[in-house]
Amino acid sequence: MSVNENNLYLIRPAGRLLLTIGRELIQDPCAAILELVKNAYDADSPDVVLSFHASGVDGITITVEDHGHGMSRETVLGAWLVPSTSDKQNRRESPKGRILQGRKGVGRFAASMLGEFLEMKTVTEAGEQTRVMMDWKIFENATFLDEVHVPVVTNPTKKKSGTKMIMTGVGEYRSVWSQDQFGKLMKELKKLVAPSASISTELHRSKDDFSIILQIEGFGEKIDQQRTKVEPFPVFDLYDYRICGTVKANGQGELTYHQNRLVGDSKSSPIRFDFGHPTGCGCVDLDIRVYDRETEAIDALIERGLKKEVGIGSRIGRLEAKRILDAFCGIGVYRNGFRIRPLGDASFDWLQLNFLRVQNPSLNIGSNQAIGFVRIESEEKSGLIEKSARDGLKDNEAYLSLKSLTLKVITELQQRRYISRKKARMSRPVVRVEDKLEKFSSLDNVRKTVKKSLAEHGVAREAIDAVELVMDQEQVKMSRQADAILKEIAIYQAHAALGKLMQYVIHEAKLPLSFFQNSVDLLMKFFQLYLNTKHEEIIEEDILPLVERFPEQGKKLTNLFSKLTPLANGSTQNRVSFSIKKELQRIISVFSPTTGKEGISLVVNGDENIELYGWKQDFDSIFSSLLDNSMFWMCEKSSSIREIRIEIVADESGKLRYVDYIDSGPGIEASLLDSGVIFDPGFSKKADGFGLGLAIAGEASRRLGLSLQALAHDGGAWFRLTLGSNDTQQIS
């Protein structure tokens, strides 16, 4: 740092600044190669040739050559040799209209990670060649950057335009390029550019082709390869399920679902997608492909054409097929056609798909089942900012919105996949606890078998009757045990419903609790002030007004938490007869503060004298689940009309006929009604849902002797509770 006579200081960067930029901001040698590939693309080159040549045991030469427009001497001196230049950021587009990849002005210095020496030759279309020589050791040893002298020579030439970067090194620069490292590089190159088949909208790179060519020699027979064009691995086109399309910045989108998994059932279907609000991350183009991992699915994948990367025509086994999926899985994020690392790496589960799958394995896919391409707009339009270290996107609101949007699109795929697999009986069968317990606790089949066997062996009738009596006694015991288990299950399910209600109660309890907390502090201060001053007006003006509000706020808390009974009881209550309307009004009162804020009207019509006999816990579980779902979807989809209407209908004798529950939300898709999956445990349309609410409601209705049905309705969701079962409509 130098100083002039006015006491103003000039900052002199250290000589190793460029090495810091190149070696510490860039993650690894593969990332360094990718940076240079992007520079070739920015140069309007139709291709880039990557050559790796091992010289002897210890030496290596890496060449990155393009056939673009090259750089003039002026550009080399005024931009290429200037760290963090804003040249590309200002230009935005190449002369041929390509969206420029470089924005930070540091990518070229990644060459320092690849060798000790760099020779750069660049030729313009006007026939001007400029050569630059850089010895990185000089930068390492220089005290200040302006002490380093870089040779730059310019001559006329008849060579074709383009830029060639030659990096040479020994020792560590050679040893890093093992068979595993080349394998990693090949995988990175294959994932660098999204396959053209995945492009569905304008959110992709320029339509002109850009090829990546790789050549390796001198490293050994197992590593070396001839001049080869890098192609996306064919697994991309062999998917079982796929969803693709565009979601505009306003949150509206047009998607298409494709299914190839089932033989003779391949189909495509359009989806009108509604995020419910603007995306918060601009316009997004998505193409997500999913692969089943069961043995039968892997066999089908091989049959559809999955082959080894080398050795055309050679079949592969299941283990190799799974290895390929493991290697290439991941949902990448692309901007202007190029992937933003590490989003899309197999080891970087940025959407937490594996966590969600553990929560609900029947419905959700894992990260090793998906290969996807998510294309985003520029930083200015999307708010999605790339980190300078080339290690992903900044964790801001736009990034959170992108994750939420992508998960929601995946949810659309998962729901359709679940239905398809259920129809084909490939999914796990839905287990109904009551049915399993009934079969488990029944000795009917055993009784018949024993009686027959004893009779065939000539056992006396009296002995057979005695054995049957013992079995009848055991049957009674087992039935009692089954009933006890069912009661315990009912308690756990009631607690699950209680959790939903608690969200609303706790939210409303914050205000009175905050009042008590603040008031106690104020009272202590006022009381201390009174003790110090003995001024009686403090009691009258400050203390008493606060104390007078305590009963009011305490009553609010009491009322709030009283609404949680009987769900909050630790054990199952006895069956009782209760007024359906009064119990509904009590449940609704728990939600009323939230529904009021969200502008949701709740109406219950029916005679208070219509009763139901059973556990109130089960009744509460049913309607707390229905109300919670309605409120979520009406708010999620920003419904203009927000109404929930409950109709209690009696028969001629005044007894319950049915209860209709109707909301004005987005409704339930016909495919979900037809398949009956909405009552399956684990099925959910929410990206982070557990799929338990309606499943619990279905089981609770059966314990009450009711049938819970979901019916077709144009204006929202329609559920009906009827006495007994209805085989034609019941889907619970």
Q: Enumerate how many helices there are, as a single number.
A: 21
The helix content, as a percent range, equals 40-55%
Spatial sequence of strands, sheet with the most strands: 7-6-5-8-4-3-9-10
Q: Over all CA atoms, what is the radius of gyration?
A: 35 Å
End-to-end Cα distance, whole Å, is 77 Å
CATH topological fold name of the largest domain = Heat Shock Protein 90
How much β-strand is present in the residues? 15-25%
Outline: extended
Salient structural properties:
alpha+beta, seven-stranded mixed sheet, eight-stranded mixed sheet, 4 domains, 24 strands, single chain, 40% helix
Could you write a compact summary of the structure shown?
This protein folds into four domains: 17-229, Histidine kinase-like ATPase, C-terminal domain (Heat Shock Protein 90); 234-423, no CATH class; 430-572, no CATH class; 577-732, Heat Shock Protein 90.
Overview of the molecule:
With 732 residues, the chain is of the alpha+beta class. It has four domains: 17-229, Heat Shock Protein 90, CATH 3.30.565.10; 234-423, no CATH class; 430-572, no CATH class; 577-732, 2-Layer Sandwich (Heat Shock Protein 90). The strands form five sheets. Strands 7-6-5-8-4-3-9-10 form an eight-stranded mixed beta sheet. Strands 13-12-11-14-17-15-16 form a seven-stranded mixed beta sheet, covered by helices on one side. The protein has a five-stranded mixed beta sheet with strand order 19-21-22-24-23, with helices on one face. A hairpin with a 3-residue loop joins strand 3 and strand 4. Helix 15 (461-533) packs antiparallel against helix 16 and helix 15 packs antiparallel against helix 17 (550-562). The protein is extended and about 110 Å long. The termini are far apart.
